[in-house]
Amino acid sequence: MQGHTIVCGDDALAMRIIEELNSADTKVVTLQSPDGLAEADVASAQAVICAAADDALNLEIALLARQANPDVRVVARLANSVLREAMAQDNGPGAILDVADLAAASVVEACLARTTHTISVAGIDFVISGSDAPRDATLREIFGDLAPVAVIHDENSDTPGDVVACPGRDYRVRAGDWTAMIGTAEELAAHGVTIPTPLSHTRVRRPLRRVIDAVRLFRDDINPMFYRALAASMALWIGSTVLLRFSYQRSPGMSWIDALYFTTETIATVGYGDFSFLHQPLWLRLWGIGLMFAGVTTTAIVVAFIADVLLSRRLSHSAGRRKVRHLRRHVIVVGLGSFGIRVVSDLTAAGYDVAVIERDDDNRYLSTADRLDVPVIFGDATLRQTLESARIDEARAVAVLTQDDVVNIETGIVLQEMLGPRVMPEVNRHDVPIVLRVYDRTLGAAVALRFGFESVRSTVDLATPWFIGAALGLQVLGTFSVGQRSFMVGGVYVKLGSELDGMRMADLSTQARVIVITRPGTPLRLHPRRDTKLRAGDTAYLVGPYRELLATLRKGQGATQSDVTGPAKTG
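Above: the chain's sequence. Below: its structure in token form.
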């Protein structure tokens, strides 16, 4: 057995990788423990993909595979950043990948309703930008020579919601159809396509807003009885000052400052050395006694309320509810796993307020959320009261990212009901994106169709091309979503005698589009014409649905393999 690929793992990602490799006629051997490496013939393997959900298992298999075969491509999935960085150093052929890193950008873009993706290709920043077609016309008539990536039919179309991948420039669209085009920023601007400003990397909050929010927080945390106690204390203080100013018998008379000072030291019970009631009339001495008791009582009450505020602020900080009270236009993230915390980090780095809902109060990422100054509300996100405590009425978007598909779908349905016109007539649900993480692609598509979710993201779909590309020696530059379909940008070096050697652009997959060709000794060729031929030594960069694109990229490497083996025994 030569040139096969070993895949470790049994979760959704590993199963998808195995499925895609099998469909591409690649020899696949599966295993679930390091004991099966020798029997899987790692010494002659083309690649080892460690895609299990367990970092420890992936790490062990990756290290043993590299030790047994220094030339094998090792592609390992590691969520732990320390292990990932350590393994990436001098890893040799292959890649060390994190699913959260690969898929978080798509969720952030969906939360912020951004339809623009920037990917660097051959040293040029290409922008994939989406917009509605302004009129009935062909894509060429509207966008000129810009390369079409996808068209989503409008609801008034005969096939509403259908995604047409990489149509020709002469494809006719109707006004309102959503179109995604790719080109440089200058090319897009020249054809009237507006490019959103890049996400900022500073979290800016005006000082005046901070002061106002701090005052509001303090006001809301104070017990209402505090104000009555404070008013009584101030009345006693001022009244006694006035009384002593005009009634205290001494020569010369007591000034306002002396009266205020004497009142304060009496209430605080820190006198008497300079003033006393000893030689004053009987009624004034009785007043002094009452002032002492009243002062101690009101002072104790005021101090108790302040202590209550400090304690309640500390407790509410751990629950996150106090911080959320005055958030506006924030993003709610449900689920604080490795994927959720990456999305939270990206959003906060871009300057957006974030609130998190999490069930587990022992979650390992709580310290990271605290460092990012992100409030965490503990509770069940499928319950309305939990979502209300996160200020769902003020949120700009909600990302539901737990590891349970059913919980995510249920939470999404509850959110749709809460944001609907019957519950919140002042909130338009189309203005509040709901992004759901659903592992299973088929389930995600069915849920999106049945319940009308516009942003269902599969981390498996977004990450799989990177793992397969690294295992096959292909260059994957980026993945993104259009509608419910995953697209990829990748590059392939055309080898001598491969299927792509001598092939015209028009003969490529109809769902893959070449955007750049680099050829030694010649300038870059942007948006090559359909009659352009590839030849050995070229590097072609393409965009399209990832399945079709991976198949096209592999054609540049030579003949494919046809044998598929069953699972290897793992001892």
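The first helix runs from residue 12 to 23.
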